[in-house]
Amino acid sequence: MSGNPRIGPKIVVVGAGAFGTALAAVAAAREKANVTLLARREEVAAECRQTGRNEAALPGISLPASLAFSSDMAVLVDAEIVLFAMPSQAHRDAARSYGPAISSNATIVTCAKGMEQSTGRLLTDVLDEELPGHSIGVLSGPGFATDIAKGLPTAMVIAAPDTEIATELAEALSGRTFRLYPSGDRIGVQLGGALKNVLAIACGIVEGAGLGDSARAALISRGLAEMSRFVVARGGEPETVRGLSGLGDLVLTATSHQSRNLRFGIALGKNGGAGEPGGELVEGAFAASVAARVARELGIDMPITEAVAAIIDGKLDVATALEQLMSRPITQE
């Protein structure tokens, strides 16, 4: 990631949704930045070039004049850092589509919060498999796209197999209002980002069902214990769970109505778990069934995650799930 000393490393953000656009905007706001937002459709890139905005993804937010827009994957050829900002379930196909155009020296960073539903694998594992020879990092933590794009203070985590690479990435992507903390724990950072979405759905169910703030606090604290057990069992560090990508992201997503996962849970709670709240992509809905399945295979006790997965799958209603959770044997805190 050397680059011209007078210009920053060439960064390409793949995915012109809200989060990808926000990350591209904050990276492009840096002095001497060299950032391109790569959209799947040319009409999206053309609108961004003409208006300086991505109204479909971030309405009303002006993007930096230095940010370039393209739909041509040829921009990847000399990119030094490539951010994958598409949904988690699209990562494998995206790697196969864009991989041939990516420079062999590029560092790739997944910015999604989830696990592959069909295999239960972490997204860095998916990218390691599909894009061998690249250093694969992960960016996660408490940050809403709108807040990032508006320049509101945000702190997140970036993890890589080598902490030296993670530090280089943090320095290349951090800005005046956007700070990245480097980490060497890719497993813990990813699982924190994925599982907090499941727990945010649980907190939404509590809110939608009118069960009170005490129940939400209990879910957050006991959910964090579940997250820690899962992370350790998968080879991550327990300290990571207590940081930005675990506790920090969980508190944000479980309490703010900007969270799609929380809103999804609220809809479930209001109708008792019946029916399908639709409209928005909800990563936690994918992660719940995956995490519950993997937890059973590993013998990890995750009752909240199991309950959320069962409610989403239509196997359990909210009232029954609550009764089962509250009637579990009393154990030491």
TrEMBL record:
<feature type="binding site">
    <location>
        <position position="282"/>
    </location>
    <ligand>
        <name>NADPH</name>
    </ligand>
</feature>
<keyword id="KW-0963">Cytoplasm</keyword>
<feature type="binding site">
    <location>
        <position position="113"/>
    </location>
    <ligand>
        <name>sn-glycerol 3-phosphate</name>
    </ligand>
</feature>
<feature type="binding site">
    <location>
        <position position="40"/>
    </location>
    <ligand>
        <name>NADPH</name>
    </ligand>
</feature>
<dbReference type="InterPro" id="IPR013328">
    <property type="entry name" value="6PGD_dom2"/>
</dbReference>
<comment type="function">
    <text>Catalyzes the reduction of the glycolytic intermediate dihydroxyacetone phosphate (DHAP) to sn-glycerol 3-phosphate (G3P), the key precursor for phospholipid synthesis.</text>
</comment>
<feature type="binding site">
    <location>
        <position position="113"/>
    </location>
    <ligand>
        <name>NADPH</name>
    </ligand>
</feature>
<keyword id="KW-0521">NADP</keyword>
<dbReference type="InterPro" id="IPR011128">
    <property type="entry name" value="G3P_DH_NAD-dep_N"/>
</dbReference>
<keyword id="KW-0443">Lipid metabolism</keyword>
<feature type="binding site">
    <location>
        <position position="141"/>
    </location>
    <ligand>
        <name>sn-glycerol 3-phosphate</name>
    </ligand>
</feature>
<dbReference type="InterPro" id="IPR006168">
    <property type="entry name" value="G3P_DH_NAD-dep"/>
</dbReference>
<feature type="binding site">
    <location>
        <position position="41"/>
    </location>
    <ligand>
        <name>NADPH</name>
    </ligand>
</feature>
<feature type="binding site">
    <location>
        <position position="259"/>
    </location>
    <ligand>
        <name>sn-glycerol 3-phosphate</name>
    </ligand>
</feature>
<feature type="domain" description="Glycerol-3-phosphate dehydrogenase NAD-dependent N-terminal">
    <location>
        <begin position="10"/>
        <end position="165"/>
    </location>
</feature>
<keyword id="KW-0560">Oxidoreductase</keyword>
<feature type="binding site">
    <location>
        <position position="260"/>
    </location>
    <ligand>
        <name>NADPH</name>
    </ligand>
</feature>
<comment type="pathway">
    <text>Membrane lipid metabolism; glycerophospholipid metabolism.</text>
</comment>
<keyword id="KW-0444">Lipid biosynthesis</keyword>
<feature type="active site" description="Proton acceptor">
    <location>
        <position position="196"/>
    </location>
</feature>
<dbReference type="InterPro" id="IPR006109">
    <property type="entry name" value="G3P_DH_NAD-dep_C"/>
</dbReference>
<dbReference type="Pfam" id="PF07479">
    <property type="entry name" value="NAD_Gly3P_dh_C"/>
</dbReference>
<protein>
    <recommendedName>
        <fullName>Glycerol-3-phosphate dehydrogenase [NAD(P)+]</fullName>
        <ecNumber>1.1.1.94</ecNumber>
    </recommendedName>
</protein>
<feature type="binding site">
    <location>
        <position position="283"/>
    </location>
    <ligand>
        <name>NADPH</name>
    </ligand>
</feature>
<feature type="binding site">
    <location>
        <position position="261"/>
    </location>
    <ligand>
        <name>sn-glycerol 3-phosphate</name>
    </ligand>
</feature>
<feature type="binding site">
    <location>
        <position position="260"/>
    </location>
    <ligand>
        <name>sn-glycerol 3-phosphate</name>
    </ligand>
</feature>
<dbReference type="Pfam" id="PF01210">
    <property type="entry name" value="NAD_Gly3P_dh_N"/>
</dbReference>
<feature type="binding site">
    <location>
        <position position="196"/>
    </location>
    <ligand>
        <name>sn-glycerol 3-phosphate</name>
    </ligand>
</feature>
<keyword id="KW-0547">Nucleotide-binding</keyword>
<feature type="binding site">
    <location>
        <position position="145"/>
    </location>
    <ligand>
        <name>NADPH</name>
    </ligand>
</feature>
<dbReference type="InterPro" id="IPR036291">
    <property type="entry name" value="NAD(P)-bd_dom_sf"/>
</dbReference>
<keyword id="KW-0594">Phospholipid biosynthesis</keyword>
<keyword id="KW-1208">Phospholipid metabolism</keyword>
<comment type="similarity">
    <text>Belongs to the NAD-dependent glycerol-3-phosphate dehydrogenase family.</text>
</comment>
<keyword id="KW-0520">NAD</keyword>
<dbReference type="InterPro" id="IPR008927">
    <property type="entry name" value="6-PGluconate_DH-like_C_sf"/>
</dbReference>
<feature type="binding site">
    <location>
        <position position="249"/>
    </location>
    <ligand>
        <name>sn-glycerol 3-phosphate</name>
    </ligand>
</feature>
<feature type="binding site">
    <location>
        <position position="19"/>
    </location>
    <ligand>
        <name>NADPH</name>
    </ligand>
</feature>
<feature type="domain" description="Glycerol-3-phosphate dehydrogenase NAD-dependent C-terminal">
    <location>
        <begin position="185"/>
        <end position="322"/>
    </location>
</feature>
